[in-house]
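quick one
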Amino acid sequence: MINKKLFEMDENICTHLGEDSKKYFGAVTPPIVQTTLFSYPSLEEFIPALSRERENYVYTRGVNPTVEVLEKKLAALECGEKCKCFASGMAAISSTLFTLLKAGNHILFLNNIYGPVLSYCNFIKKYGVEHDVLFSSDIDEIEKHIKPNTRLIYLESPSTTKMEILDLEKIAILAKRKGIITAIDNTWSTPLFQKPLTFGIDISIHSCTKYIGGHSDVVGGAVIGSHKLVDEIFEYGHQFNGGALSPFDAWLAIRGLRTLPIRMKQHQESAIKVIDFLKKHPKIEKINHPYVLEGEAKELAEKQMRGYSSLFSIELVTKDFEDIKIFVNSLSVFQIGVSWGGFESLVNASNNGMNKASLESQNISPSTVRLYIGLENAELLIEDINNALSKN
Ligand SMILES: *Cc1c(COP(=O)(O)O)cnc(C)c1O
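structure w/ pyridoxal-5'-phosphate:
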């Protein structure tokens, strides 16, 4: 599944690209350039720099050398021309939408989308930006839902909670034909396991808080795409909203990236072991992860992905909230919590005992439990799940 040659190139990007230790005394890690501003020897040099802040070190809300190292690596990993980093994944997403949309525009969301993004879009309805969410991978169905004012197709593949996949290439072709920009939240796959820009998607977005940071100690985000689009997002969404990534947080994400390739191999291996166990368990009705796909869907996954990460959901046979509670509370290695992508395994139930109708409207079964496979021993995690399933 993993294309070995490309993976090795990615390893080199994660470990070395964008760094020049000669500039900083041979230090093998880049300095945290903890400064707010950069001074200039003369007004003649300062004036042009200030007028092109995107290309010069002027002020850390714009461009900072430590943040820039991370941006170079992420652009290269995604095969994009340019990357801009943000203070969080949500800052990256909201700044992108803020930049690209205006009153009267429509966004078509495909698949289950990270919840706060839809909440944001409900909020910006007051600015005259409309949206629809379509749960279908059928290209004709997608085309039918495009409106004359659709400016952006925004998708997740694999999607939040359900891990459903979409044909990126077909969607990109359709969108280009209609003059619509495409954006994907690629957080689940990381830039190692899926490179959406190579399939024609215009913008790839990450929450660096997840696998890229990798140690549950940094919040960050990134947008990767063409010079033109990323420059526009920098100029407006980034500069006006001010969601700049701090140099220290960028440095943590750079440190996270160095081990991303080996971590992702391990996450994939452990997730597959856990899924193989769950597949045979009588109390599990369904597993939502690309690894269990069959037929055409599997072919598509293998075509556009180089690996599978370790966040997925299971649907229990029982639909009773009390049983779900017993299962989740009985886990002892998996900790209950939001987020994912760090070292620690996590569990989170979609059902809160009061939201059955809302879950059904989002195409989510009330028996859904989300599991995140961290870096603990896979056998230990299987034992933990097996034990918890015996309790309800
Ligand atoms: C966490 C997450 C985000 C938001 O990222 P933050 O860094 O928490 O703002 C966006 N998309 C997906 C798929 C996520 O999991």
